[in-house]
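Protein modeling request. Please complete all fields; requests missing the sequence field cannot be processed.
Requester role: graduate student
Desired output: 3D structure, C-alpha cell encoding
Chains: 1
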Amino acid sequence: MPLLEPKPGALRPRTISGPAPDRVPDRASTGTPEVLRSELAELLGADKVLSGISDLVRYASDASPYRFIPQVVVIAEDIDDVSAVLSYAHGKQREVVFRAAGTSLNGQAQGEDILVDVRRHWAGVEVLEDGLRARIRPGTTVVRANAALARHRRVLGPDPASAIACTLGGVVANNASGMTAGTTRNSYRTLSSLTFVLPSGTVVDTADPLADEELERAEPALCHGLMEIKKEIEADPELVARIRAKYEIKNTTGYRLDAYLDGATPVEILRGLMVGSEGTLGFIAEVVFDTLPLDRELTSALLFFPSLPAAAAAVPLFNEAGALAVELMDGNTLRASVSVAGVPADWARLPKDTTALLVEFRAPDEAGRAEYERRAGEVLAGLDLVAPVASVTNAFTRDAKTISGYWKARKAFVTAVGGARASGTTLITEDFAVPPSRLAEACEALLELQAEHGFDAAVAGHAAHGNLHFLLAFDAARPADVERYAAFMEAFCRLTVERFDGSLKAEHSTGRNMAPFLELEWGPRATEMMWRTKRVIDPDLVLAPRILLDRDPKAHLRGLKTIPQVEAVADPCIECGFCEPTCPSEDLTTTPRQRIVLRREMMRQQPGSPVLDGLLDAYGYDAVDTCAGDSTCKLACPVGIDTGALMKDFRHRRHSPREERAAELAALRFGAVEVAARLAVAAADKITDAVGNRILQAVTGAARKAVRPDLVPEWLPQVPGAAARKLPATRRGGAAAVYYPACVNRIFGGPGDRPGPSLPEAVVAVSERAGRPVWIPGDVRGTCCATIWHSKGYDAGNRVMANRIVEAAWGWTAGGRLPLVVDASSCTLGIAHEVVPYLTDDNRSLHAELRIVDSIVWAAEELLPHLEVRRTVGSAVLHPTCSMRHLDDEAQLRAVAEACADEVVVPYDAGCCAFAGDRGMLHPELTESATAREAAEVTAREFDAHLSANRMCEVGMDRATGRSYYSALLELERATRP
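Delivered output (978 residues):
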C-alpha cells in the first residue's frame, strides 16, 4: 500500500439517513453474479463489462423518478456487440435495456438485468447533400448534431429542452419533439431512414432497396405478423379513424399505430414503429434525418398575464399570427427560475397566479421578420398584460442576448423547479396534450385537480401545440405520500382522456409511469394491437419488458426512488444528466450526476453495510481523484450545481493534518518552491536531452507507487523545458496595465520546437507595439493565483495564497486604478473569482476594487485595434479552455486568432482537456479520455497553428494530438512583428 494512501473511511457520510426502503440490499454488495460476469466477459471482452457495485448503482438512476439496479452493465462498441448481447439474452432467457444519455423522464433507460450503454462509442455526424440530410449515430447529442448543421443553415426538427444532453437515439426512440416540433417537425415526420437491430439480432437498414427482400428471408414470421396486423387495422374503419384522430395532436403513448397505415411493407412499418418504441422493439444504430431551414431572423417576447387560463386563451391568437413557438410558464416556474443565471431577481416577487408566454417568430429574411412583427403588434394591442415587477417589458425584441435569456429560463423548467423542491422529495414530470383550442379549459381543470389532491405543481409547456408539462414533488419514502400521488394520477388520467380526449404522454413517451394507463387512452382494441406488435417483433420479451406495456395497474408505483439528503451543494440535483456531456471523466469513471447518485446510495445504507463499504472503496478513484475539478458541470447545470467543488471538499477531507500543514508551508514559502520547481524542470530537461525520458518515467513511477498516485506526478515527455530565470524588463511609469505572469509561465517555457520570444516577452512586446505598455512588478516571485491549493482541497494553503495575491495586486495596481492582466486563463479565473471565499473581510473589500483581465481579452479589446497585422498563417485550430468558458471570453480568443489566421476552427467536440494544472500528470488516463474526440477532429486534417491560452492545457493537447499547441498571444506577436 502506498505510504500516504487515503482511507476510504474519510469519505464516509457524516450523517446517514438510512436504511431507506429502496436501498440496495446487502446481497448485491459483490456486484454482478460471477457466472453472468464471466460469460459476458468471455463473449465481449472484460473491458466491456462493468460489474462492481459502484458501476451498478451509478447506472441505476436516470432523470426519472424511478430506480432499478441492473445485474450488469455492458459497454457496447458496435453492432456486433449489440447482436452478441441479444443472442446471449435469448439463449439465457435474460432481459436487455439500452441506455444512452439517461435523460428520459419515465424510467425508459433503466433495467433490472442486462443494461447496455450505447452512448460512449456511438457518437458521430455526417452531413449529407450540403445539409439537406444528416446521418447521425445514436449517442450524438442534439446540440452536437445541430452544430454540424448550422454552417449549412440547417437544423433538426426535434428540439427538446434537454438538447444539450439528450442523444438522437433516445430522441427517436421516444419521439421527443420539444419547443417547435409539434406534430410536423418531430422524428416520425422528419426521419428519412434508420438502421436498427431487431431482438433476434437481424440488422435492417430501411434505406436499402433490398431491405424488405432480405427481411423476408431472415424473419418470415415477423413479416407475416406485421402484415396481418396491418390488414386487420385497415379492415376496421372505426379503428383507422381513431388512430388518425389520436395523432392530430402530439401523442407518444404506446406504439405508433399509424405506422401500419403509413407503411406499405414490413420494413416501412418497422421504420414507423421504431419511432417512439422506447427500445422495446429493437436497437436504433443509426438515423438519417431530413433537416429543416435554420431561419435566423428572430423576434421574441416574454409576455406576462394575470393567470394561467388568461395566458392559455391568448395562445391561439399567436398561432394564427404565425408564431413558431408559444411557450407557457406559470408563476411557480417563473419564481423557481430565479436560480438560473441571468434570470431577473425580481421574478421571485411575482404574484402566485402570474403566467408568462414566451412567443417567438422566425423568418428567413428581414422582410419576413418585419411582417411577423406587424402581426405580433396587432395581437399585443388586444391583450390585457400585467407588469408586476420592474424587469417585465411585455415587448418584442430582436436582441439575441435577451432572447437567449428567455429560452434559458424556459429550458430550465424541470431542473429549476426540481432544484427548488423540498429536500428529500422525489420529482415527477407529467406531460400531456389536449386540442389547442381547449388549452385554457384544460388549465383550469388541472389547477382544480391539483388543489383537490394537495399539490401545488409547476406548469410549463408547448402551449402552441396544446402540450403542457407539470411537476409534482412528494416523499417516496412515505406511503401516504405515494398513495396521494397514485390517487392524483388516476384522476388526472381520467380527466385527460374522458373530458378532453387528450394524450397522456405528448412527447416524453409512455415509460413506466404511464404504461398502466395505456388502455384507458387507446381502448382495448388498439391496445391489443400494441401487445400483438410486441409479440410479433420480440416474442421472447427480451427487450425492455414493463417499460411501455405492463398489465399491472400499479406498475407506475413500483421502483419509485427516495432522494436522501446529501451535501448542500449537490442536494438540489434531480439527476437530469445535463452535466454529463461536459464532464471530462464521462468516458473514464463517473460523471457529476453519478457522483451524486453514488453519494445518495451511501445515505440510503445503514452503518456497517457491505454495500456502503463497497461504494466507499471505489469512490476515491472513480469520483474524487478523476474529477478534473474544472466545474464545467456548473455551467451545464441550469441551477448551477458545482460537483467539482464538492469533489475538492472531499479531497480536503482525505488530507491528514500533516498534509494540510505541508501544503500551507509550501504556500508560505512559495518563493523558494517556485525557484526549486524551475530548477527541477531545467534539470529534467537536461536529463532527457542526455538519456531520454525513460529514467524520469521510472523514477516518478516508483515514487507514485511508494507515496500516492494522486500526490506524485508522472513524468510526461510533453512537459516543456524551464522558463527563463528573469522576466522581461519593464517600466512602471506610463504603464497602461500591470502584467502578472502566472507562476506556470515563470516555471515552464514555451514549446521547444518554436523559436521566438517567451510568452512574457511576447505580451510585453505586443502591448508596447500597440501603445499600451505593461509593467511587471519586481516582486511577483512567490505569489500565485492559489489554484494549486484550491484544486487539491488544501484549504489552509489556499487561504494563505489567496490573501497574499490580493494584497499584492492591490499594491501593484495602485488600489485598482490599473487593470491586472494575467497570462493564463485558469489563473485569471482563480484571482477573479475562486479566491474570494478564502479572503479576509478586509481583503474581500480590496478584491472588489480590482480589475482582473485575462491577457487574451486584453489583446482582443485593448491591443488589436492599434496593431497592424503584417503576416498570417493559413489555418489555426483553437482549444478554448474550461476557464475561458467560466470567464465567457471564448469570443476574444477567436478574435485574436482571426487576426492571425485566414481560417480559424474550433472543434465541435472541444472541451475541458482535464490536464487541470498537474492532474493530467497525476492521472494521464483522465486527459487521454477527456480529449479523445477533440483530438480525433484535430488530427483528421493539417493546421498551420494550434492555439490556446493556458500552458498546461497546451501540454495536455500536445499529448493528446501529437501537435504543438501554444498561446495565441505568441502567434499575435509574430503576426504583428515589424
